[in-house]
Model the fold of this input.
Amino acid sequence: MTDGIINRVANSALVSFDLERYYRPGERVVLDISDRLFQGLIIKEKDFREYVKSNDWQSYANKFVAIHCSADAIIPTWAYMLLAVALEPYAKRVVFGTLDDLERTLFNESLADVDWLQFKDAKVVVKGCSKVDVPMSAYVEATYRLRSVASSLMFGEPYSTVPVFKRPQRH
Done:
């Protein structure tokens, strides 16, 4: 008989890697320039420059901004560049693309700052449940980075894991 219940998860050598910790809080918004197109088709440089000059960019203060055009139109590169210049003093971050692209960028930037060597030879569980939507690209990036340092890699929760990688034993 045992003297009590033993918490094998708490006593294990598993290290949890929680991608939720790398979520950057803040409002995310889309700046869709489709309503700035002349006849829904093209950008007229003079009109677009006037829009950029006269718009209240302060309304994007401390927000994460994704800029794109939802219309099927060819937008010159300089138009997006002008928007980035106008937003930069106010927005926390500006990216080209959708909200999904923005989220991928934010996670990739956060993961680029991780000291991956802290997981050297560790048995790592990449946590599966999260209160925020973690893009699939973040799981792939974490796996790519962890594979080169960890002795094993699993997905899920410490009490219920799916093996992903195990470094072969060296003799």
Summary: The chain has four helices and seven strands. The chain has two domains: 1-23+114-171, 28-91. The first strand starts at residue 14 and ends at 17. Strands lie at 14-17, 28-32, 64-68, 93-96, 123-127, 152-157, 160-166.
